[in-house]
């Protein structure tokens, strides 16, 4: 059973989250997330710290200790219900169907084994292959992620590699068992700009060549645009806007997305011109205000926003926004853009 | 826009007038000895290897570069947190560490804000006590120091009534960084070093802190040295930019010129590496392969030559000097310097 996948439904979306809620103690960090990732698609989850983006990602692998976390809702990967998996099935599922790369590869690797050994171990855990066969595959993976002199590098310990190379090795490890879905949690945040772009391009290439489905969690809009077909913006445990990269970046309809786009330093054309900021700070998740969680910081907030949770509206096919005042928001964004263009450079 | 902001020099500490650089550094060198393994051979990390630059009064000088390029070591050397191996530092015309300007007097005028807002505050002191600490040590009476701390807290946007008595762990990252900025300003410095001061913050908070830095600079007539790996932030805040590579300056000049028409191929590659924000126009190729090299064994000649697309044989032999390519814009690249022997160098006549 080398390459057979235990797919219940081959046509099911790669990842399907329905009203997903994740809570720790009294705090609900993810508060009803609906997302669908089609096969072969790359999606970026963006948001600030505490928005629940990493928790959503980790919930897909059920990485949180059972006793201290509560996950409810639907969580399906390739048609399989992840929440119903037994311990044993979960162990087979991790790495085989879905695998993950982390922000800090130095912490994710075991420091006392060589990188090659960790990759062959993963392969042999999931598949019945000989040690030499596993090593051959590890070598092929290293070539795939373009690690220079791969043969020698397989025998390196993690600390002997540079940051960019470690992240490549991490990707090789994640791909070791030919998963269908790759989850990437801020994979380039700790890297230099010149290395970051290489890793982002590598992810895009893997998506294209291997038909991989990718979820990329990042706080950097730029990184999201480089990799993702679709972007979902999270705020306080909710997805506030989701759509194609095009729709979200060029035609945003949620005031928070607009705020994120505006607060970027490259948005300010003139030096000394002040950056537009989002006032205030994210809400305390233990005491959520009623209504829209973004209302206290929103430039468009009306009475209704503070009392009633906005429904998710479909603005265009595939472009969904949770806001009462999407039209006003989009108009404000367009007005801002044309005002900016009118300013002589 | 390239000229430094001319604040009328009412500062009684100003000696040389607005034309004299606030800080000028020449030949700054710092090497760290390392030993590879037990009983291994001794090697030297050339963290900062001959850096010259000037910071003009009232300007913001941005320093960019990848990890290992020496930008943080430079900041620590400027602050005197580590001792330099050699090199000269003149602060408003006086040699730092000389009898006329001892380190203690210099440090009162130069303050620093670090990247890790939590690690740089004493966890057992309230933020008010942390801010008042510096002035107290420097002879400001206790009550006055506390008053100053409260005034600064209000100035950085933290209401003293709510925040003065808090401990660092009771604040968010953005609030802590505001406290660090207030503490840096408590001694009324003239120069503030910001070492990746906004890098750990969320984008929306980063924008708030950048705005605050702009306001404070105008209000207190400050000069900033702003170190960051984020070119967009540096472009936004800096008047001039200095690009470092492997312990040396590769390019320095007005930020509009350096970041719009980079003269050094490394600056070009850095700019090209910034993710695009246009889904229709995504980056197709990475200009640089591999990681920044190790500063233990920098390559001979131009340090960038192994990764440079313009590299010619001469680049492995001659270390390029930091020469002007335009007024106030200097670059250390042989391909831009007439008579350097590089095949793409401009003709000597054109430059003369």
From TrEMBL, chain A:
Keywords, alphabetical: ATP-binding, Cell membrane, Membrane, Nucleotide-binding, Transport
Matching InterPro entries: AAA+_ATPase (IPR003593), ABC_Ni/Peptide_Import (IPR050388), ABC_transporter-like_ATP-bd (IPR003439), ABC_transporter-like_CS (IPR017871), Oligopep_ABC_C (IPR013563), P-loop_NTPase (IPR027417)
Gene Ontology CC annotations of this record: plasma membrane
Protein's UniProt keywords contain Lyase: no
Pfam families on file: ABC_tran, oligo_HPY
Gene Ontology molecular function: ATP binding; ATP hydrolysis activity
UniProt cross-references to Gene3D superfamilies, sorted A to Z: P-loop containing nucleotide triphosphate hydrolases
Domain ABC transporter: 15-261
Membrane topology: Peripheral membrane protein
GO biological process assignments: peptide transport; transmembrane transport
Record localization: Cell inner membrane
Family assignment from sequence similarity: Belongs to the ABC transporter superfamily.
NCBIfam families in the cross-refs: oligo_HPY (TIGR01727)
PANTHER family: DIPEPTIDE TRANSPORT ATP-BINDING PROTEIN DPPD, OLIGOPEPTIDE TRANSPORT ATP-BINDING PROTEIN APPD
Protein name from the UniProt record: Oligopeptide transport ATP-binding protein OppD
Automatic annotation (TrEMBL), chain B:
Function: Part of the ABC transporter complex GsiABCD involved in glutathione import. Responsible for energy coupling to the transport system.
Source taxonomy: Bacteria, Pseudomonadati, Pseudomonadota, Alphaproteobacteria, Hyphomicrobiales
Predominant subcellular localization, coarse grouping: membrane
Keyword Cell membrane attributed: yes
InterPro entries assigned: AAA+_ATPase, ABC_transp_ATP-bind, ABC_transporter-like_ATP-bd, ABC_transporter-like_CS, Oligopep_ABC_C, P-loop_NTPase
Protein's GO biological process: peptide transport; transmembrane transport
Location relative to the cell: Cell inner membrane
Organism: Methylobacterium dankookense
Record-linked SMART domains: AAA
First-level EC class: translocase
Record protein name field: Glutathione import ATP-binding protein GsiA
GO cellular component, one term: plasma membrane
Domain ABC transporter, chain residue ranges per copy: 23-271
Alphabetized SUPFAM superfamilies for the sequence: P-loop containing nucleoside triphosphate hydrolases
Keyword terms: ATP-binding, Cell inner membrane, Cell membrane, Hydrolase, Membrane, Nucleotide-binding, Repeat, Translocase, Transport
NCBIfam families reported in the protein's UniProt record: oligo_HPY
EC number: 7.4.2.10
A molecular function GO annotation: ATP binding
UniProt similarity note: Belongs to the ABC transporter superfamily. Glutathione importer (TC 3.A.1.5.11) family.
Name of the encoding gene: oppF_2
Catalysis performed (reactions): glutathione(out) + ATP + H2O = glutathione(in) + ADP + phosphate + H(+)
Assembly with partners or alone: The complex is composed of two ATP-binding proteins (GsiA), two transmembrane proteins (GsiC and GsiD) and a solute-binding protein (GsiB).
Protein topology in the membrane: Peripheral membrane protein
């Amino acid at each position: 059973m080398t390459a057979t996948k235990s797919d219940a439904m081959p046509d099911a979306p790669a990842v399907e989250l329905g009203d997903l809620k994740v809570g720790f103690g009294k705090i609900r960090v993810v508060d009803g997330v609906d997302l669908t990732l089609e096969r072969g698609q790359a999606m970026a989850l963006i948001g600030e710290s505490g928005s629940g983006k990493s928790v959503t990602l980790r919930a897909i692998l059920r990485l949180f200790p059972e006793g201290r976390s509560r996950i409810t809702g639907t969580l399906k990967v390739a048609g399989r219900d992840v929440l119903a998996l037994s311990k044993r099935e979960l162990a087979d599922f991790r790495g085989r169907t879905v695998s993950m790369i982390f922000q800090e590869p130095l912490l994710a690797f075991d420091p006392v084994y060589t990188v090659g050994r960790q990759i062959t171990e993963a392969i042999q855990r999931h598949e019945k292959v000989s040690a030499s066969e596993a090593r051959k595959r590890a070598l092929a993976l290293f070539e795939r992620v373009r690690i220079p002199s791969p043969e020698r590098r397989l025998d390196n310990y993690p600390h002997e590699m540079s940051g960019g190379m470690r992240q490549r090795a991490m990707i090789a490890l994640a791909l070791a068992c030919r998963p269908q879905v790759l989850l990437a949690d801020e994979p380039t945040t700790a890297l230099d700009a010149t290395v970051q772009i290489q890793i982002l391009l590598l992810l895009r290439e893997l998506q294209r060549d291997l038909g991989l489905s990718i979820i990329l969690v990042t706080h950097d809009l730029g990184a999201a645009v480089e990799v993702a077909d679709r972007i979902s913006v999270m705020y306080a445990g909710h997805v506030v806007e989701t759509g194609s990269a095009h729709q979200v970046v060029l035609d945003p309809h949620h005031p928070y997305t607009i705020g994120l786009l505006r607060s970027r330093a490259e948005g300010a054309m003139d030096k000394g011109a002040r950056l537009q900021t989002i006032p205030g700070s994210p809400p305390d998740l233990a005491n959520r205000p009623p209504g829209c969680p973004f209302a206290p910081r929103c430039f468009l907030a009306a009475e209704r926003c503070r009392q009633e949770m906005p429904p998710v509206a479909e603005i265009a096919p595939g472009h969904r926004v949770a806001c009462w005042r999407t039209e006003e928001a989009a108009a404000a964004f367009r007005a801002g853009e044309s005002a900016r263009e009118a300013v002589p450079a | 826009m390239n000229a430094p902001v001319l604040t009328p020099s009412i500062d009684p500490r100003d000696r040389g007038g607005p034309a004299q650089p606030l800080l000028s550094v020449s030949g700054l060198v710092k090497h760290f000895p390392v030993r590879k393994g037990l009983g291994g051979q001794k090697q030297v990390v050339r963290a900062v290897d001959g850096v010259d630059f000037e910071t003009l009064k009232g300007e913001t000088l941005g320093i960019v570069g990848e990890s290992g390029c020496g930008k943080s070591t430079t900041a620590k050397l400027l602050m005197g947190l580590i001792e330099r191996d050699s090199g000269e530092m003149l602060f408003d015309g006086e040699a730092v560490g000389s009898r006329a300007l001892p380190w203690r007097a210099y440090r009162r005028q130069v303050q620093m804000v670090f990247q890790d807002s939590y690690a740089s505050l004493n966890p057992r002191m309230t933020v008010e006590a942390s801010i008042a600490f510096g002035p107290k040590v420097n002879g400001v009476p206790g009550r006055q120091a506390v008053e100053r701390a409260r005034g600064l807290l209000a100035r950085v946007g933290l209401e003293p009534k709510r925040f003065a008595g808090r401990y660092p762990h009771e604040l968010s990252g953005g609030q802590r960084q505001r406290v660090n900025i207030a503490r840096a300003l408590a001694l009324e410095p003239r120069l503030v070093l910001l070492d990746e001061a906004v890098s750990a913050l969320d984008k929306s908070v980063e924008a708030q802190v950048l705005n605050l830095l702009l306001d404070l600079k105008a209000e207190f007539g400050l000069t900033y040295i702003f170190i960051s790996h984020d070119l967009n932030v540096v472009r936004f805040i800096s008047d001039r930019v200095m690009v470092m590579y492997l312990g040396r300056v590769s390019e320095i000049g007005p930020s509009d010129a350096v970041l719009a028409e980079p003269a050094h191929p490394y600056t070009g590659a850095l700019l090209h590496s910034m993710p695009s924000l246009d889904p229709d126009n995504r980056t197709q190729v990475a200009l640089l392969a591999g990681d920044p090299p190790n500063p233990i064994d920098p390559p001979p000649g131009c340090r960038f030559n192994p990764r440079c697309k313009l590299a010619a044989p001469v680049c492995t032999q001659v270390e390029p000097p930091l020469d002007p390519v335009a007024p106030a814009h200097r670059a250390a690249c042989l391909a831009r310097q007439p008579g350097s022997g590089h095949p793409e160098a401009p003709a000597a006549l054109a430059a003369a």
